[in-house]
Specification:
The protein is 18% helix and 42% strand. Strands 1, 2, 3, 4, 5, 6, 7 and 8 form an 8-stranded mixed beta sheet that branches. This is VOC family protein.
Length: 121
């Protein structure tokens, strides 16, 4: 059985992404560059980074609906996890995206919350 290896990232929506990122940097000490809306929180080994990021309020990246956040889960084998979820009747998106830092897939829980799965390179 495939299992989540860790949290790959936490993503928030904001009316003003840069201002919200600056607030988190100032008040919580999150390592977000002054001109950015994302930062790496931890890195305990290759592919084990946890990313924190702010997206515009109108982003479609979180899927349809009014969700104001999305969690990215780090997995060892994305294809096996997606197959396992589909076999269990979970709503899984067909698309998988490949980047030089890993592969991504998306699914939705029974409450309608979209989540992202990341297999690091």
């Amino acid at each position: 059985m495939e299992k989540v290896q860790g949290i790959g990232g936490v993503f928030l929506k904001a009316r003003d992404p840069k201002a919200l990122a600056a607030w988190y940097r100032e008040h919580l000490g999150l390592p977000v560059d002054a001109d950015q809306t994302f930062g790496a929180l931890t890195s305990t080994g290759p592919g084990e980074m946890t990313v924190w990021a702010v997206h515009p309020a109108d982003t479609q990246y979180f899927g349809p609906g009014a969700a104001t956040f999305m969690v990215n889960y780090r997995v060892k084998n994305l294809d096996a996890m997606l197959t396992q979820l589909r076999a269990a009747g979970v709503k899984v998106e067909e698309k998988v995206e490949d980047y030089d830092y890993g592969r991504f897939g998306w699914a939705t829980d029974p409450e309608g919350n979209r989540f992202e799965l990341w297999e690091p390179k």
